[in-house]
Request: fold
Amino acid sequence: MKKSIALILLASSLFASEGGLYFNQGISAFYSKDYPKAEALFNKYLETEGENHVALRYLALIALENNALPQAETYLQRAIAAKPDSLDNRLLLADIYGRSGALSKAERELLAVLDYEPLNEQTLAMLAFIAVHDKDYRKASGWYKRLLIATLRGSASPVYLERAYTFLGNYYYHQEDYPAAVNYYAKLLELTPSNLQNLLILGELYKVTGQFSKSIDTLEKLLSQKSDYAPAWESIAESLFIVDRPGYAHAAGKAATLLKEPNQLMNAFIFFHSGNSQEASEAFGTILRANNSRLSAHIGMYRIYANGGERRNARNEAFTVMLLSQRISANELAHEFAHKVLRELDRENHELNQPATQETSSLDPDQVQYMLDQTEFSLSFAGLSENLEKNHAALVYYRNARKHILPLVDAEGLSEKSGELVNSKQDSLREKQYRSLTSEAWLLHRINAANDSRSLALLSKARKLAPEDSTALFISGIVEMETNPESSLEKLTHAVRLAEMHSENSIAPANYYFYLGLAEEKISSFAEAEPRFLKALELEPYNPTYLNYLGYMYSLNDTKLKTAYDLLLRALEDDPDNAAYLDSFGWILYKMGKYELALRQLVGAHDKADREKNPDAVIFYHLAETYFALSLYEQASFFYGKAVEEIATASEKIDLEYLKKRHHESLDKIK
Reply:
């Protein structure tokens, strides 16, 4: 509707000019489909008034009606030369290039459109199509994610949303990034709740990401629509068996009946349910020989061993289930089986009837093996506890691991058999001792900076154990960054050098360069640190933390704003609803003078932070500055006031006196 009004106004102004009559008659002829007459009139107009992008566009449309693509292309090129920011002409020219197979030329025009309107939905959809055609699926995923940003902030077109969610769900599924695939398929299912294929895929994805209850619920929805869908019965039977819920045998029986070929897993469930342990064990064993990571088969073997009183085998299977569950983030299931392992280890310790901390010279092979098993379990359980945010338990088990390692790492005087067992594990034991020290130190730092002296003491011990390993040095540098920046910079520099020295390609991990940049920035300047941030991004070009940080720092330094803009768009591709990224993006737009666009992003950041009950005075400040620039002084005054009131929530340092001054200025403007 707005375009029609603009066209009428334009036509009126043209009519007032010398050649305006030709133009308006040409419009009339065009919409009467008298294309030869319209063409002649538009050409007369151009002869009278000179190059005009609107008239040239109509001539291009007439050429398209006549299927004269080269002629249409020429007209549009002239139109763009007359008015480079004529986006409709660029889009039409891109469409013509697309029809003729000149996709690189189409891409060039589309990228030019983005220079003027970075979130143009039609352009992003076309660029995604071209990337898919070129089989550059990583680039296509970027365009589709940017299309989501545009659509969710604009039209919320279900067509674009469905297209983007479908592609991204499939893309991450094939990348085996199942958590990301779940995210997009869940959103796709909100748009298409009755799509059986999507229900099945999402049900499977929930299962492989350890969300078994969600998998069951999703597949039950599918079966309520199509009760004879064998793959759904097969999948739901496995999830029910894993979480030990009734109905798995019924589901397995339905699947076995509907499937055209025998299914070993379904047979195993049926055998187990009927009490036929021998047949069930053989079936589970066959499955594990083909795929030793099949979680449900290991759970089946655990239950068979536990029911049969084979405690050592049951404990080993429970430990395997714990590790496999952690791998797919099924942390609650992992925690359940970890306690089964722990109970069995405690029983073994009681039966050995000797404390694990006794003199090593009297340890027999069973006691040594127990201590090795305790070490392995303790480290795994500590990591699991961290994932479940049970930090106290994690600290206890990191220390427990060392309690069982220390009597063995420097053991002397062991019996021949015990000594042989310990010596074969010496390198592994020292590595585990080092890992327990560095992991505990990092956890203590994350819990509370007040623990940093303890963290540094543990890291000092770790560095003595492995002076050529960079991990302890790297963590030490991070721990000291706020309290001792000079020491932090020295340690991080040394950590990077060590990591480069011991890597095959002489390159340290990306986060080493990122933290080194942070340390250099504290001591020196952003200009000195910038190459480190760029190196981190070179290694991990889609890391949203690095993209957001560097882009925002460019904005704070009033430099490379176009680069900053591009960096934040890439950060938002992976997390389009992140309050920090939206705030950074809005602030960059503000610095570019695009105040209305900035306001949309900053309002989004404020809404997200508000929903998460995570206020940030920096967002209030940015909103206030943007409202002030738009001469909306009442809103500016409100947010300056909020920023002053809630300055303690600021995620970075803000000048309080400046906020108060601007607050008064906005109040004066209102008066």
Notes: The chain is about 80% helix and 0% strand. The CA atoms of residues 220 and 236 lie 8 Å apart.
